[in-house]
Automatic annotation (TrEMBL), chain A:
GO biological process: spore germination
GO cellular component: membrane
Position of the signal peptide: none
The family this protein is said to belong to: Belongs to the GerABKA family.
Annotated Pfam families: GerA
InterPro entries: Spore_Ger (IPR004995), UPF0353/GerABKA_families (IPR050768)
Protein name: Spore germination protein
Record bears the keyword Transmembrane helix: yes
Transmembrane segments annotated in the record for this chain: 275-297, 317-336, 371-389, 401-426
Source species taxonomy: Bacteria, Bacillati, Bacillota, Bacilli, Bacillales
Protein source organism: Cohnella terricola
UniProt keyword terms in alphabetical order: Membrane, Transmembrane, Transmembrane helix
Source organism superkingdom: Bacteria
TrEMBL record, chain B:
Pfam families recorded: Spore_GerAC, Spore_GerAC_N
Family from the record: Belongs to the GerABKC lipoprotein family.
Keywords for the protein's UniProt record, in alphabetical order: Germination, Lipoprotein, Membrane, Palmitate, Signal
Name listed for the protein in its UniProt record: Ger(X)C family spore germination protein
Membrane topology summary: Lipid-anchor
Coiled coil ranges: none
Gene Ontology CC entries for this record: membrane
Gene Ontology BP terms: spore germination
Organism phylogeny: Bacteria, Bacillati, Bacillota, Bacilli, Bacillales
Organism: Cohnella terricola
UniProtKB/TrEMBL annotation, chain C:
Primary localization: membrane
Entry-linked PANTHER family: SPORE GERMINATION PROTEIN A2
Pfam families per UniProt: Spore_permease
Organism: Cohnella terricola
GO annotations of cellular component type: membrane
Protein name, per record: GerAB/ArcD/ProY family transporter
Keyword list, A-Z: Germination, Membrane, Transmembrane, Transmembrane helix, Transport
Localisation per UniProt entry: Membrane
Topology class, membrane: Multi-pass membrane protein
Taxonomy, superkingdom: Bacteria
Length: 447, 355, 356
């Protein structure tokens, strides 16, 4: 009898060992708590054993300690429980076996491996709260709770994943978010609860968003303040453990030019800023195409004075304007990509070399025309006048489509490309909401 | 599957496009963009076409050919030139006086029909040496001064008339008006000198109006901003505003028209003690005389260049509109009364009031 | 989707036909008092619209086809719809060809029609592929993208107006009623047919629809009178694209671009694409619903587009286009006048049946 108990305890330990054979941070050792011996199994990297034990021991000293009433339950020698236990281990819990061959799981003190709340790194809030999300989901939820004191803030947590398990929280404001949206998100999460989730793209795929969308179907934000605004605008926010971003679903067309930060400004400033951003969107998409149109297909659109100057500035450039444009655009995209990942103190150097020196040299070498550089810079600036980097990428890509269409059909191609994108946006529906909607609140009208 | 296949098919079709080519793609620096086209009588052929091509350095390039038709001549120029010729920016069509006398309907029809010529371009007639005017070049001009000459934002004054290609086309077809074409010749220091206005009947030039007489034409067309008139010795006024009122009558002997022109003027120059009332009187008499003379002259040309038919149009039936030029216009009785109102003398007081 | 969008789409469809046919045909049909002809057209349209919407409102949630099937059975409906289908197909082809020609004339002189119509047909295919709901939604986007151009190119020529060319305001005879060009103008009615095929939540009442039509009536008057006031009847009658040339008469320095007809063509061809997509969608869904319920509607659509493209290539010149337009006006009269009346009668009959 005793033998078999012993066996089952060791068997369990052995099976855990087998399971974590390749993980060198898996440890099993004997510990003493309240003068009792326990076998403790845990992952060294996730558990700070010493402080845990001392906390427990401190508790046991107190008169009405409940340590003895700790929920030890009998060990069942089944595969099921091995899987369950190993899952608890991976989540950073401590497993204790006692002599009576029962087992308990306790939440130990964890080594300090998550970042503390800091200012945002990828966003630049103006006149707003400066705290940003961190990797720890519970902390993030806490941030939101703190920013929005309301009993209508619903937080549904769930665990998702096959090989690895991720904690995920679906957050919305009851009564503000459309029930249809919540329902469709819940449904697709249920359907895909066994898929891997590590990146934002996994999340969108899980939610059944189109694979090749040229516009982001969600808004990601690092700022709790902005996320609260998103919630109040009727969006559903999904937080994923270990991603320091909140994803707000679904994105609609107005997100291209609005940021919730605008709400901190007076109304008229907000209108002005939004008009500028809408203009920037249009310019960023059409300017390179327009250059090709004006230069090679429909020069009659230019006023005569301008036409003559443009012709002169292109004098001696050996390439057709589409090639010229593509060459320099490629260069510009590389500069943008290069500066993004560089440390902050090297970035300006690249900008200077790339922008000023190369730009100057390339014009003087008569490889491209002056006007092209102006157009290019204008379109690049317009491109980054958007509210988020994500939105800008879609537009960066789409301008090539516009350009190529323009080089074939001139202004008609430009028009066609614009018509196509309108149709495309109109046909895009995420989480049961058409992309061309103006608001997500309640059953409000579409655009 | 079917959807997928269709998509692939569509993509493949789109990929074929670049293979076929970009038909209209021709870079702007590989094109000549002429701003002025001169059409004269050829020495050997019917038309002689001269194109003025401005470039950014301020020089003008001249290309010339002769042919039986204008488009053929342009085509010949294109053959010989090192760049493509694109007429889209043609802004001034200069015709030889000889051609204008023989009729310009062919030329105007060509300009309207050609889809690469904008019908907002202007038309002018050369009074004088056609070749010299067309080849005239003054060195420090901006590249498009020939166009600025007529531009209301730049060099136009109420002494000049303007005719655009579409107006010329309308003039050819209209039952109730005729057109007038400005006349130019080369200037000494300037690019052009304005010589007056050619009066057209249908498509033929029948006479001319001098610079002063053009004022009446512009008044009737409603363009009068800030022209200066010399009244008597040492006295000149500037027209600030002009009001025209027509009194139409239709009697048994045909139409008659009395026009009241009220000019609001500002005195620019006058001898020291000349009274406003006197200036008013002199001006009224002088202008009435001059205008009525002009009207008579125009009527003798049998050309409704002032657009009197337009004034009568609301009263006419469809049939009488058709008959206007042939039947009714020659029967027209016309009289012009001028009223002058001196608005002020800018910084000085009226001597009448002052004393 | 909501009602504003449907109203916008109706308005844009009206505009598409107004710009494509109205100025040229009205100027050709009548030598004076053009407003009478235009007003008669729109009055008739309002009457038909009322009948059509009345019939629809009796059976909320049902499309015209369902109403007709209820009244006359499947074969009766098919019979009633066949001329409508012919009209739709012909109108599609003619509109696509007309737009391609206009584009070739003004924008791309060297490019063959085969190439421009690829783009044109492709965009229409994409629109119709995505369905009417998407087109309706996109129509708002179009409205904001292209209406400024339309308004701009149309209204800016006001500077050059000669108002005396409006006269004679009254031509005693109604001779235009006997002019075939006047009946070509009835294609503007085709704009409202789609109202009977939308789902119930987007259905609009007569008031709103009449508002859209009334608003487009103003544009129709503009489109006829702008060329008239600029060129005069005597001149405008010679012009193939009166409104297009009207936008070329402007020469102002503050206008950034020079060649304004291009913008006119751009906006009117965008409207053309809109109309062709809607008609294409109607054509395919009628065909699918009544004649080929088994076939995949996307195959029908693709097939229709191929036919559309090929027919555009087969029309040799604009004279042939005109003769087809005259031919089409018979079908058009059926589709836009007889068909709504038929639907109305069907609805009445059906209601009697139900109540009896």
């Amino acid at each position: 009898m005793l033998r078999s108990e012993k066996q089952s305890l060791q068997g369990m330990e052995k099976r855990l060992y087998d399971r974590f054979r390749k993980s060198s941070d898996f440890t099993c050792r004997t510990v003493v708590i309240a003068n009792e011996e326990f076998r403790a199994c845990y992952l060294e990297s996730l558990v700070n054993l010493r402080t845990t034990l001392s906390t427990i021991n401190q508790n046991t000293v107190q008169p009405d300690n409940d340590w003895t009433r700790q929920d030890f339950h009998a060990l069942e020698d089944e595969d099921d429980s091995v899987i369950r236990l190993s899952y608890e281990l991976l989540r950073g819990n401590l497993i204790l076996f006692n002599k009576e061959d029962s087992v308990t799981v306790i939440e130990p003190e964890q080594p300090d491996i998550s970042r503390s709340i800091a200012i945002p790194n990828s966003e630049n809030p103006i006149q707003s709260a400066f705290d940003a999300f961190t990797e720890d989901i519970d902390r993030n939820i806490g941030l939101l709770r703190k920013k929005m004191i309301s009993d209508q803030l619903v937080i549904e947590t769930r665990f998702i994943g096959g090989r690895s398990v991720k904690k995920l929280a679906v957050i919305y404001l009851e009564g503000t978010a459309r029930p249809k949206v919540i329902e469709s998100i819940r449904k697709s999460l249920d359907e895909n609860s066994d898929k891997e989730l590590t990146t934002a793209r996994d999340l969108t795929r899980m939610l059944g968003h189109p694979k090749f969308a040229i516009t982001p179907t969600y808004i990601s934000s690092e700022l709790p303040t902005e996320t609260v605004q998103n919630l109040m605008n009727g969006k559903v926010v999904i937080l994923v453990d270990q991603l320091s971003f909140a994803f707000a679903f679904p994105a609609i067309v107005t997100d291209l030019w609005t940021t919730t930060m605008d709400a901190n400004f007076p109304q008229i400033f907000q209108v002005f800023l939004r008009i500028i951003r809408v203009g920037a969107t249009l310019l960023a998409v059409t300017l390179p195409g327009l250059y090709v149109v004006l230069n090679s297909v429909n020069p009659e659109l230019l006023r005569i004075q301008l036409a003559i100057t443009v012709a002169k500035s292109r004098e001696g450039v050996p390439y057709p304007s589409i090639i010229e444009m593509l060459l320099v655009l490629l260069l510009l995209e590389m500069i943008i990509e290069a500066t993004i990942r560089l440390p902050k103190n090297i970035g300006p150097t690249i900008t200077m070399i790339g922008g000023i020196l190369l730009g100057q040299a390339i014009v003087q070498a008569k490889l491209v025309s002056n006007l092209l550089i102006i157009i290019l810079v204008a379109s690049a600036i317009a491109n980054f006048a958007h509210t988020s980097y994500m939105n800008a990428i879609g537009i960066r890509i789409y301008k090539y489509v516009v350009m190529i269409a323009s080089s074939f059909f001139g202004i008609l191609g430009l028009e066609g490309a614009m018509i196509w994108i309108t149709l495309y946006f109109a046909s895009l529906t995420t989480c049961s909401v058409p992309y061309l909607s103006l608001s997500l609140k309640g059953q409000a009208s579409d655009e | 599957m079917s959807v997928r296949m269709l998509k692939a098919l569509a993509a493949a079709l789109i990929l074929v496009l670049p293979l076929v080519g970009c038909w209209d793609t021709k870079d702007i620096n590989k094109q000549y963009l002429p701003a002025v086209m001169g059409i004269g009588k050829g020495r050997t052929d019917k038309y002689r076409v001269i194109l003025q091509i401005p470039n950014a350095s301020g020089k003008t390039q001249f290309l010339e050919k002769e042919a039986k038709s204008i488009s053929k001549a342009v085509d010949l120029i294109r053959t010989d030139s090192e760049k493509n010729i694109n007429l889209v920016h043609l802004r001034l069509l200069i015709l030889d006086k000889e051609l204008a006398r023989q009729g310009i309907s062919n030329i105007v029809n060509f300009a309207v029909r050609a889809n690469d010529i904008s019908i907002k371009g202007m038309v002018a007639v050369v009074d004088g040496d056609f070749e010299k005017t067309l080849y005239h070049e003054i060195s420090p001009t901006p590249e498009v001064s020939s166009y600025d000459f007529f531009s209301e934002e730049a060099g136009w004054t109420p002494n000049q008339s303007i005719l655009r290609i579409w107006e010329a086309y309308r003039g050819l077809n209209s039952y109730s008006e005729d057109m007038a074409i400005p006349m130019l010749s080369n200037g000494d220091r300037t690019l052009f000198t304005f010589k007056g206005t050619a009066v057209m009947r249908e498509d033929r030039m029948v006479g001319t109006l001098s610079k002063d007489e053009t004022l009446l034409y512009n008044l009737f067309k409603g363009k009068y901003s800030r022209g200066t008139i010399e009244v008597a010795q040492n006295t000149s006024v500037m027209i600030e505003k002009a009001k025209i009122k027509h009194h139409r009558h239709w009697s048994d002997n045909g139409p008659s028209l009395v026009t009241d022109i009220t000019l609001g003027v500002v005195i620019m120059e006058s001898p020291r003690d000349k009274k406003h009332a006197q200036i008013e009187k002199e001006m009224r008499e002088q202008l009435s005389r001059q205008f009525n003379q002009t009207v008579k002259k125009i009527r003798d040309y049998h050309s409704d260049v002032l657009g009197i038919g337009m004034i009568f149009r609301p009263r006419l039936s469809e049939r009488s509109i058709n008959e206007w030029k042939s039947k009714w216009f020659p029967m027209l009785e016309q009289k012009i009364n001028v009223h002058v109102n001196i608005l002020n003398e800018i910084y000085l007081k009226d001597p009448d009031v002052g004393s | 989707m909501n009602k504003i969008q449907t109203v916008t789409l109706l308005f844009l469809l009206q505009l598409a036909s107004v710009f494509a046919v109205l100025p040229e045909r009205m100027i050709a049909a009548s030598s004076g008092g053009h407003w009478i002809a235009v007003t008669i057209l729109f009055a008739v349209e309002l009457l038909l619209l009322w009948l059509y919407l009345k019939a629809l409102s009796l059976f909320p949630g049902k499309t015209v086809v369902e109403i007709c099937i209820g009244a006359w059975g499947k074969w009766g409906t098919r019979l009633a719809v066949i001329p409508l289908l012919v009209f739709l197909m012909l109108d599609l082809i003619l509109l696509a060809y007309y737009q391609s020609i206009e584009i070739k004339t003004v924008l791309l002189q060297q490019t063959p029609i085969a190439a421009t119509s690829v783009l044109f047909v492709f965009l229409c295919l994409y629109g119709a592929w995505k369905g009417l709901a998407v087109i309706i939604r996109a129509s708002i986007g179009w409205f904001f993208l292209f209406m400024p151009f339309v308004l701009f190119s149309v209204l800016i020529s006001i500077k050059n107006f000669k108002f005396h060319y409006m006269f004679p305001l009254w031509s005693g005879s109604m001779s235009f009623l006997f002019h075939p060009d006047f009946y070509v103008g009835t294609v503007i009615f085709a704009g409202f047919l789609f109202l009977g095929m939308t789902s119930s939540e987007t259905r609009i009442g007569f008031g709103k629809a009449a508002g859209a039509v009334g608003f487009s009536f103003v544009f129709a008057l503009f489109s006829v009178y702008i060329p008239l006031l600029l060129f005069g009847q005597e001149t405008a009658i010679h012009l193939q694209y009166p409104l297009l040339l009207a936008s070329d008469t402007i020469d102002m320095e503050w206008v950034v671009f020079d060649w304004l007809p291009s913008f006119y063509v751009v906006s009117s061809s965008a409207l053309g694409i809109l109309k062709v997509s809607v008609l294409l969608w109607m054509f395919v869904s009628l065909l699918h619903r009544l004649f080929m319920p088994k076939a995949n509607s996307r195959w029908i659509l693709s097939f229709a587009c191929v036919i559309l493209y090929l027919s555009c290539q087969l029309i040799p010149n604009i004279g042939v286009l005109n003769s087809y337009l005259y031919l089409n006006s018979y079908f058009c009269l059926y589709a836009t006048i007889v068909f709504p009346i038929l639907v109305f009668l069907a609805a009445q009959r059906r209601r009697k049946k139900v109540s009896a």
